Amino acid sequence: MNPNEVSGQIVDAAMKVHTALGPGLLESAYEGCLAYELRKRGLKVGTQVGLPVVYEGVNIEVGYRIDLLVEDLAIVELKAVDKIAPIHEAQLLTYLKLSGKRLGLLINFNVVHLKDGIKRMVNNL
Fold first, then answer.
1. Residues pairing with 49 in the sheet
2. Which domains are delineated in the chain?
């Protein structure tokens, strides 16, 4: 599956979850349901995947966690906040850099229309 297909599947699955649940729940509820929906579609999904910081060639485990890693290709950072802030975008970009992944999706479920809560980001490595 290419990155655009994976991204499309993630967005479609997120729309389905948002339609069923609506806004107002905790991130963890959306995470569990989105992971379930993606796996149901046959995608490989890791949840709360540890992400070390590499410092002087040493992996330092400092507690960073990727919400969802789909097909070992796309990082999905989930939010349930009033508004996406620049720090949320910076967080996803940092995760992309630390992991060496190119594709990331920032999805805020706390919106009336989910299309207004999705931001696709690419790390140009």
1. 66
2. 3-122 (3.40.1350)
SS3 44: coil
Per-residue burial over 67-88, b if 16 or more Cβ lie within 10 Å, else e, is bbbbbebbbbbbbbeeebeeeb
> How many helices (H) and strands (E) would you count in the chain?
3, 7
pLDDT tens digits in sequence order for the chain, 125 residues long: 899 999 999 999 999 999 999 999 999 999 999 999 999 999 999 999 999 888 898 888 888 899 999 999 999 999 999 999 999 999 999 999 989 999 999 999 999 999 999 999 998 86
Cα–Cα dist 101/98, whole Å: 8
Query: Which residues contact residue 114 at a Cβ distance below 8 angstroms, ignoring those fewer than 6 apart?
Result: 14, 15, 18, 19, 107
Contact 90, 72 (CB under 8 A): no
The one-letter amino acid code at 105 reads: L
Taking only Cα atoms into account, the Rg of the chain, rounded to an integer number of angstroms, comes to: 14
Residue with tokens 């579609």: 41
